[in-house]
Amino acid sequence: MLEADVAIVGAGAAGLSLAHRLSGRAPGARPLSAVLVDAPPGPLRPPRRTWCFWEQGRGRYDAAVTASWRRLRVRSPAGTVIEGDIAPLRYKMIRSDDFEHLVGHGLAGSGAVRCLEATVDGVEEVRDGALVHLRTPDGGPGLLHARWVFDSRPPGSLPAARTTLLQHFRGWFVRTERPVFDPGAAELMDFRTPQPATGLSFGYVLPTGRREALVEYTEFSPRVLPPDGYEAALRHYTRDVLRLGDLQVLSAETGVIPMTDAPRDREVGASVFRIGAAGGATRPSTGYTFAGLQRQTRAVAAALGRGRRPLPPPAHSVRARAMDAVLLRALDSGRVDGAALFSRLFARVPMRQLLLFLDGRTHLYEDLAIGLRTPVGPMLRSAVELPCLPRRPFTGP
Ligand SMILES: Cc1cc2nc3c(=O)[nH]c(=O)nc-3n(C[C@H](O)[C@H](O)[C@H](O)COP(=O)(O)OP(=O)(O)OC[C@H]3O[C@@H](n4cnc5c(N)ncnc54)[C@H](O)[C@@H]3O)c2cc1C
């Protein structure tokens, strides 16, 4: 049986971030041994992805950043351009391969974290920690005993919620014939896409050069599209809206991120915790998760270093989740026009402030001021009815 102080289950964004933090021990912190377990290549391993987030100045993962922007753009359904300078913040893009490489390099140099390729079948709480039940790639059983376990495996089903929408998208990495992109600005939300009956849709453009960009079609809506639906939407967006001309699709990525007002349990037992998307790191109103899981893993590593019980903190405050629950309800009920709401919000609130709000770094009065920039009547009606709505199980995309 393997022994460690810490077992990290899953080497996605959360598991890797925690492993990276544990590999570089802060001065005075307790020495710890950790094992990072990830499923072998196959159906449990997510495909390559691109993560974006924002932060001020230099960050601990800058060596893996593909591109970053200081200017962000939003376009209303009518094409009105809203542009903001978010300095001193920067909007950063990291590809999961580069992140894995950076973290792997750090782990190899430290010796504090051992990586193990195995499928975790279950985690069992015992008196002095927990047992992680493993299956090695050749199918053999294994056991890992740890004082603390941090589990980032995606839960099998979504919790019952008052509202569950899905953020579902497909992106193409494109190279165009002509120099058509402005690498100085990222286009966060371009609402010139046809809008779905419930929720909203938008284009998202991350230019990495004059001729290269990641171009995505995204919906916040109750159901995913058939695969050819995304292809058709991307063809329409790149050809008829962006008018990119001839282009090559170099690669593609797809995602479905649940946007739910259900609380997530971070504490599974006395020694077992959930982190990452599984531990509620996703901001319900936007799907952004990377920054939330950084806050969680930073706090966990600090608690471990001080010898304290490392319960991951909530990634988002009660107030932020309550405001998001109202927005999700207003979108799902069709009471608000999502594209108009977001366009208006970006037009009336400085982008930097909206980003700080999404990170939970604004005061109550600032949050209220942001709330007043939304259609107040429909939002209030959604807020009033929320407590009376039952939490219903999600019946599937
Ligand atoms: C395509 C895509 C793009 C995204 N873009 C952004 C973005 O731009 N910004 C942002 O903030 N968020 C983004 N997100 C949301 C979120 O940041 C990601 O989903 C992120 O990967 C969540 O990290 P995680 O560690 O919680 O889960 P994951 O990264 O999914 O990691 C889970 C890990 O668990 C492992 N695993 C699963 N089952 C087992 C098992 N039985 N045994 C062992 N290991 C197992 C998997 O191999 C995987 O490594 C995106 C999501 C997707 C899908």
Could you describe the 3D structure shown?
The protein starts with a strand and ends in a 12-residue tail after the last helix. The mean pLDDT is 94. It has three domains: 2-69 and 93-157 and 261-305, FAD/NAD(P)-binding domain; 164-259, D-Amino Acid Oxidase, Chain A, domain 2; 318-388. The protein has 397 residues and is α/β, with parallel strands linked by helices. The chain has helices spanning 13-23, 96-110, 227-241, 290-305, 318-332, 338-348, 351-358, 364-372, 376-385; strands at 2-9, 34-38, 50-56, 65-69, 71-75, 81-85, 89-95, 113-117, 119-126, 129-135, 141-151, 164-176, 185-190, 200-207, 212-221, 247-260, 272-274. A hairpin with a 4-residue loop joins strand 14 and strand 15 (212-221). The strands form three sheets. Strands 1, 2, 8, 9, 10, 11 and 17 form a seven-stranded mixed beta sheet that branches. The chain is built from nine helices and 17 strands. Helix 1 (13-23) runs parallel beside helix 2 (96-110). Bound molecules: flavin-adenine dinucleotide. The site of flavin-adenine dinucleotide has 33 residues, from helix 1, strand 2, strand 3, strand 9 and strand 16.
What is the secondary structure topology, with strand pairs?
Elements: E1 2-9, H1 13-23, E2 34-38, E3 50-56, E4 65-69, E5 71-75, E6 81-85, E7 89-95, H2 96-110, E8 113-117, E9 119-126, E10 129-135, E11 141-151, E12 164-176, E13 185-190, E14 200-207, E15 212-221, H3 227-241, E16 247-260, E17 272-274, H4 290-305, H5 318-332, H6 338-348, H7 351-358, H8 364-372, H9 376-385
Parallel strand pairs: 1-2, 1-11, 2-8, 5-13, 11-17
Antiparallel strand pairs: 3-7, 4-7, 5-6, 9-10, 10-11, 12-15, 12-16, 13-14, 14-15
This protein binds flavin-adenine dinucleotide.
